[in-house]
Amino acid sequence: MKKYISEIRKPLVATVLFSFFAASQVFAASNKVEQTDSLIQKWLAIEQQRNAMINDWHQQEPLLKQRLILLKQEQAQLELNLSTDSENDGEVEKKRAQLLKSQNSMESDQTLLEKSLVDYFQVIAEIQPQLPPPLFNAWQKKLSAAEFISADTTQKLNTLLELLEQLNDFEQRISHAETALMLPTEQGEKEIMVRQLYIGLAQAWYVSLDGTIVGRGIPEASGWRWQSDNSVDGEVVLNAIAMIERRSEAQFLQLPISLTLNETVANK
Known about the structure:
It contains 7 helices and 8 strands, in the order αβαααααβββββαββ. It is of the alpha+beta class. The chain folds into 2 domains: 2-7 and 29-171, no CATH class; 174-267, no CATH class.
């Protein structure tokens, strides 16, 4: 448990050198600005909840362990008193009362932790559809696993920490994937194998394996939407993936990025 908590606090350093320079102005209607603010506030709230949960566990774990140790000591002493000294009935009753009080306190803490986990996993369920597909699938494997469904409170807390660590890691790095997408073509909609480039949680581009079909991904409340975009240079996307895979030297590349529903060009 301590291993997971310590690992989540480690800074994650991107392995690929990319930098972006904004090159155009963004013109948006007021409702689109509100959507942007709402999305930013939502992610900030998630990060605050993650930090609060970790801090809460840091405070509760040693206390719960110490209480458990004390309870076992009290129980051993109580059993010794019961078996060796029948004249200390009054003291035994006092110890029993203290033991019961401690047990009730631990049960209360356990109930509070279980309720907090329910709230945290509700947040997980709300944001999962908006995650990039690779991260969505990684979360889905953990959440649908048989061992998670039947897990106790401690195991579910560990799973929650792992999910938040994956979220933080994906947000801070550049990644890629290869998958099949249903895309429109001159012959109609077809399933096409594409390579995808992700920057953080909200920017993605795709290019078919032959480099002829290009576009971008747009995160929406119900999931990601993939659409054709001729402003995307397929060769640039493939070069960026090659740099991530260390198959080519790092260099400056230019990709169109999206801020809400408006577009600007940034150097990467």
